[in-house]
Amino acid sequence: MNTSQFLIRKATVKDFEKVFDLYKSVSKKNGGLARNEDEITIDYVKSFVEKSFHNGVQFVIEDKLRDAKIIAEIHCYKLEPKVSGHILSDLTISVNPDYQGIGFGKKLFQTLLE
Question: How far is Cα 38 from Cα 75, in angstroms, rounded to an integer?
Fold first, then answer.
């Protein structure tokens, strides 16, 4: 696999629909996420995206050869109350089933730690 076709970067607001699509596709696979497909709603994705942008971090991997398709995502954000503000929580990694087992989840986690 040509790794130069993939770009790891911070997520932007413009990624919302592609992240939603990613979560819908991953949730269809049994054990793909801790949520079932019917739990992946616009409001759910909007909630973690907003929290990540406001007080956390979110990275995506895009496939440049497939119209910048988002193939993987990681996010986490600070907890409330403020006494827990030094902790990033609700960490989630989502990798499209067609790209699993290649190391994209590991690359996202390493990027987050850096």
Answer: 21
Answer whether 96's CB lies under 8 Å from 26's CB.
yes
> CA angle, corner 66, sides to 26 and 25, nearest 5?
10
Let me know: does 93 contact 73? Beta carbons within 8 Å: yes
- Look at the pTM and tell me if it is higher than 0.85: yes
User: Strand (E) positions, 34-68?
Assistant: 56-63
Peptide bond into 81 cis (omega under 30): yes
For the stretch 80-97, pLDDT in tens is: 777 766 777 788 999 999
Q: Which value, in Å, is the radius of gyration of the alpha carbons in the chain? A: 14
